[in-house]
Model the fold of this input.
Amino acid sequence: MPLYQYAIASGHDQTNLDNIETVMTHAPIADRIPLGSVKRRTLDQRTHYNGTVTILWRWAAMSRADLNTLLSYMTGVDSGSAPVTICTPNNRDEYRVYNAYMTNPQPQSDWTRAAGGHGAVEPLAVEFVILDQLYGFLLQENGYELLLEDGSSLLLE
Done:
């Protein structure tokens, strides 16, 4: 059974996401979803965040097979980015599902071949540009609580 809720699917607005630990050897270490890339204070002294929201999924090392599996979620691997739906922690460490663009990780800048690693790569960083939140999950004692856009929730056992 997977330890984490990191998940991914090709395309936007997907509901059937693959848990990363069921298709790859290890789950990533991820940043929390930031509030926005531009922070500003208005005259009423409130702080507002705007701009592009990006997140990195990182692995210390991974097999070439796992890298190919991850890249299979990009429709058109030769492109710079592709639409995906991901489940990742938000800025409060609560897992939420987002539409995003997955940036194609490039050799030398995002990963290198491991010395003597028989095709292994290290370290790997994959950037996702977040577009919008679809829904979220909370881990409960008797299953997962699915948080819907309208504020309601369902218990998944």
User: Anything to note?
Assistant: The longest helix spans residues 64-71. The mean pLDDT is 79.
